[in-house]
Amino acid sequence: MNLNLFETIDDMLGFEKLASRQGYGVVAGIDEAGRGPLAGPVVAAAVILPEGCLLAGVTDSKKLTESKRNLLFDVIMDKAVSVGVGFSDSQTVDRINILQATLRAMEAAVMKLSPAPDCLLIDGISPTALPIHQRTIKKGDSLSLSIAAASIIAKVTRDRLMEAFDKEYPGYGFASHKGYGAASHLEAIKRLGPSPIHRLTFRGVKEHVHT
Questions:
Q1: Contacts of the segment 17-20: beta carbons below 8 A, 24+ positions apart
Q2: Which of 6, 33, 56, 174 has the fewest CB atoms within 10 Å of its CB?
Q3: What's this model's pTM, rounded to 2 decimal places?
């Protein structure tokens, strides 16, 4: 079946229903937050929703306001069968690259799920190394409810971590830009140098690493 057909179907449970028809009993949606920032971890979330679950307002986290994401975070945590969250810190990103660090965080998130899933719906184009049936879906956070739920969990979790880092490493403005390359952030790196949570291999940071 051509999965791109679901791009024209207004049914956020289309991929989950297809997996069920194909015989998979426990489907988890997976997404990440934090591939692009200059600082902080990449965070992945895996979410198993009850069969036929409908969550009003749940969509790609980037399309939601912060207050709406926070509200839906609590709804998802309450309604989900299971939620797992995985992390790769900035040192891991620098050591193995951002793609591999993202996949490692996704794998960690899946391993925290109970019951264990037998089918993974993954936002993007890169499968994990897990020995579980999986399907990658471009723009999956807008097409699959479980992936959209995972995108909200990952985004809110990471934002809260960056707000905590703002207190630990003041002066960089992590609470406002969450580690992304805002002009104020780039200026702070020039002024203060990289912090312990900066990604030293990323442009905008590596130029200010003094060895």
A1: 19/119, 19/121, 19/135, 20/51
A2: 56
A3: 0.94
